[in-house]
Amino acid sequence: xxxxxxxxxADAEFDNQIKRYQNFQNLVTVPLSESQKAALTSxxxxxxxxxxxxxxxxxxxxxxxxxxNKAGQLMQQYNKAGxxxxxGLANRRAEEAQLLQQGATPTQSAASVQxxxxxxxxxxxxxxxxxxxxxxxx
Length: 138
Fold this sequence. Notes:
By secondary structure, the protein is an all-alpha fold. About 45% of the residues lie in helices and about 5% in strands.
């Protein structure tokens, strides 16, 4: 089932691990809500830390231009593995796009947006269990 640890240790490990997948924060020039950060972190985690340097920069450009709908549409194009459509990836991208689009607009303060834990995708909620998935272990 994986390694177990207490909540405080799991939170610290999660914070340490997740920083590797938040390179978007160096590129986005507008304020982001917590749900928007969660969406972009999930996207980057799934596609790899170098995704922005490869071909996903138009997503960042759309966000910086205040066009969250376009950014969400662009995110949803990443629904293939090995060149083939994968429904699970399409579902994940749809959740990420929804999180990105439902957050604060670029002109809103992120502090003004209340995000309930239920709004986060199920694959982010694992931290509540205190069990890290194998992919989060070094």
